[in-house]
Write a structure and sequence with these properties.
This protein is an alpha+beta fold. It has 13 helices and 17 strands. Helix 2 packs antiparallel against helix 3 and helix 9 crosses helix 10. It is globular, with a radius of gyration of 21 Å.
């Protein structure tokens, strides 16, 4: 018999609406799973059990009274520790904030709460989201549920690992260089990087930054899209919000893949990718490509993507963390220090060049999709690696020049302003989770999501590509 914590969010919400499952039953089931499993992987780092029970009882009261039930009514949602939650320790993984307890929710948390989501826990993240290994000096490391010697990736690693173990039914995340997509891949869950402005970002130091976005994570596409609907909003304090007030469909329908023109690439022409991961990727593509109208090995021209990314990211990190670096360097971790110091090396001419280069990358990307509906690549360049390593420093015997270079599969599309899904796609050569990302230009959220749910069904119908589950 299926236990409540094993249900998908969509299934649980339907059962709650039909009064066949109480929110209290679901929350207590998740709390039991947290108690049993979280000590093994350290995914959830702040927890208020009493508040969870209180919110669940209130949700059940509304259900029994026949009140209007919102999208996420009675559903427990994990919140990444970069987001502020009222009356719950919110540290951003930094010693600077180790005792911080906000009195207000931030905008995205408020949206989730307003749609009936039960907010009672925080998921682990690297300090200020810097890096793709979820570890920090406040809470320590989040471990991969499929092999606790390995990393859950990051920066949404706590959310991904908690979802993989059914401790929560859905979770929020954020993405710049792949912070949603990489941990989703490492932990065999689903993550979505929406177009800028779909989910408002109002607390950023630099508001004119379309590269960092908030987004949803779930056990499948339908769950993830449900959370996206709850997160989405038009907010005048996000300068991209009015530009991207795209109507999301109430119900996500499958597209006919036989009408979809698909491109695929193992490395996007610019990313270092482990040779075994490339082999696995091509093997997976062989199992699915007959479902599409066309399937062509091709990719956009990303030009000098690595230098472009480093300069613009350096600017954003100096803007966001320069004062912390100047006044509290000893309390910062090495990734934040590295990003700020690299950013300080650039001048106005470097920044001008980078923005011109990014514009050309964006134009190339848009031009490419005149011929294709979706671009598919691996979500991550390597198999999950030891959590004791802060980052991947070598691929195929070649040393990586920065701690971020191994993330080029994610940050290259980011610089072109995309929307992108990461879907579980079976196991890799080391029997660890393998994920693929589905990429399209920003503004195609509905269309890409309809492709994603159709492809998910194809993947889950094949033992070689269906979503694996951890045995922790």
């Amino acid at each position: 018999m299926t236990k409540p914590f094993e249900l998908s969010a969509f299934e649980a919400r339907q059962l709650i609406g039909k009064k066949k499952l109480s929110s209290l039953e679901l929350v207590e089931s998740c709390l039991g799973q947290i108690k049993k499993t979280n000590p093994k992987i350290n995914a959830i780092v702040a927890l208020d059990k009493a508040e969870a029970i209180k919110q669940a009882k209130e949700a059940d009261r509304k259900t029994l009274k026949g009140e209007k039930l919102n999208l996420l009514h009675g559903i427990p949602v994990g919140i990444k520790d970069l987001n502020m939650v009222r009356n719950l320790r919110s540290t951003s993984g930094s010693l600077l904030n180790k005792d911080h307890v906000p009195i207000n929710d931030d905008a995205i948390v408020k949206n989730i709460r307003d749609e009936g989501g039960i907010i009672f826990c925080k998921t682990n993240t690297p300090e200020f989201g810097a890096g793709a290994n979820t570890t920090n000096r406040v809470y320590g490391s989040t471990l991969n549920p499929f092999d606790t010697k390995k990393s859950a990736a990051g920066s949404s690693g706590g959310s991904a690992a908690a979802l993989a173990c059914d401790m929560i039914t859905m979770a929020n995340g954020s993405d710049y260089a792949g912070s949603l997509r990489t941990p989703a891949s490492f932990c065999a869950v689903t993550g979505y990087r929406p177009s800028p402005g779909i989910v408002p970002t109002v607390d950023s130091a630099v508001s004119l930054n379309p590269f960092s976005v908030q987004g949803p994570m779930g056990k499948n596409v339908k769950d993830t899209f449900l959370l996206l609907q709850a997160q989405s909003d038009i907010n005048p304090n996000d300068p991209f919000s009015s530009l991207n007030a795209i109507s999301l469909p109430d119900n996500l329908l499958e597209t006919d893949l036989s009408s979809v023109k698909m491109a695929y690439s193992s490395d996007l022409g610019c990313a270092p990718v482990d040779k075994e991961i490339k082999k696995i990727f091509y093997k997976k593509i062989e199992t699915i490509k007959s479902n599409f109208k066309t399937a062509i090995n091709d990719h956009p021209n990303f030009l000098d993507i690595h230098n472009c990314f480093e300069v613009i990211r350096g600017f954003n990190y100096v803007s966001s963390h320069g004062k912390k670096y100047k006044n509290h360097k000893k309390l910062l971790g090495s990734n934040v220090i590295d990003d700020v110091e690299k950013g300080l090396l650039y001048n106005i001419e470097d920044l001008a060049w980078a923005h011109i280069e990014q514009t050309n990358i964006f134009k190339n990307f848009r031009k490419f999709f005149e011929d294709f509906d979706v671009l598919i690549s691996p979500s991550a360049s390597v198999s999950p690696y030891p959590h004791t390593k802060l980052f991947v420093d070598e691929i195929n015997g070649k040393k990586m020049p920065t701690y971020k270079r191994w993330l080029a599969l994610s940050y290259a599309p980011t610089m072109a302003i995309p929307c992108a899904w990461s879907l579980p796609c079976g196991l890799d050569h080391l029997n660890m989770p393998f994920g693929i990302q589905l990429i399209a230009p920003a503004g195609n959220d509905a269309k890409l999501s309809e492709i994603a749910i159709a492809l998910e069904n194809v993947l889950n119908s094949n033992n070689e590509t269906k979503r694996p589950r951890p045995k922790i």
